[in-house]
Amino acid sequence: MFTLDKLTNSDNFFLLAGPCVIEGEDMALRIAEKITEITARLQIPYVFKGSYRKANRSRLDSFTGIGDEKALKILRKVGETFGVPTVTDIHETHEAAMAAEYVDVLQIPAFLCRQTDLLVAAARTGKVVNIKKGQFLSPGAMQFAAQKVVDAGNRQVMLTERGTTFGYTDLVVDYRGIPQMQAFGFPVVMDVTHSLQQPNQTSGVTGGMPALIETIAKAAIAVGADGLFIETHPEPAVAKSDGANMLQLDLLEGLLTRLVRIREAIK
User: Fold this and answer.
1) Where would I find the DAHP synthetase I/KDSA domain in this sequence (predicted)?
2) Which of 45, 135, 176, 190 could bond to 225 as cystine, CB 3.0-4.6 Å?
3) Running DSSP on this structure, what letter comes out for residue 212?
4) H or E stretch including 248?
5) CA distance 89 to 58
């Protein structure tokens, strides 16, 4: 079974990366192949990320997925084809056991990080649980979310920073939160792309500031983040979800190369 030490027993940061949502098999395999090649060469432990379904959408007509079972089977195929672990979001308690049959890491969305039953259901699968910090919470409050998973019998926990709500249509990253959450004894990930979202736009479609992806990522590595979370797509402009804040796939190699140099410099 996949365990956290396979990510953290490295001198490098680890990476959770992939498309926002599984749009199809060919696209998922194409992205995974590219990132696997880059991370293997740079010696970055890698987890393929893809949501099998998007439950938190601004509008009813927003794309949510290609079908749960179909998308989960694609995630499993990615893992088997490239020999990498996979991560996906879950939204309700009954989804935990279902998704755990296909992926290695269950991710708790930021808006749901206080949902006790969801955290416990994820914990009981025995899978690694990645809890995203709510946009409305302080870093210190995340110790209680993590403790729910631990108390349910699972210490395979990591925490993810993804910015804090500021005003109505912006998020701000307070980098003090990374060492504050690391002090709880869990690896801490910086969600680079979601922290650059601009939610609550009048169009009903979330905006973003992808030009600042490198800024957020560099700062996170500089302050000692254990891992990075980056959503990427070959053509963000036509992505079916979160295209406004995703990184174009062909820019990933250069970014990771520069980040590895920062990591080496601060060691």
Assistant:
1) 11-262
2) 190
3) G
4) strand 247-248
5) 17
pTM, rounded to two decimals: 0.93
CA 200, 203, 209 angle in degrees (round to 5)? 60
pLDDT tens-digit readout, 173-209: 999 999 999 999 999 999 999 988 766 554 555 556 7
Determine the straight-line distance between the first and last CA of the chain, rounded to whole angstroms: 30
Domain 5-266 classification at class level: alpha beta
Express each pLDDT in 110-140 by its tens digit.
999 999 999 999 999 999 999 999 999 999 9
Dihedral of CA atoms 123, 125, 126, 129 in degrees, nearest 10, equals -50
Query: Cα–Cα distance between 53 and 91 in angstroms, integer?
Result: 9
* H or E element, residue 116: helix 116-124
Which carries the bigger pLDDT value, residue 171 or residue 258?
A: 258
User: Which tokens belong to 103?
Assistant: 């992926």
Is residue 200 within a helix (H) or strand (E), and if so which, with residue range? none
Going from N- to C-terminal start, the domains of the chain cover: 5-266
**pLDDT value for 143:** 98
Query: Which residue in this structure is represented by tokens 């979330």?
Result: 206
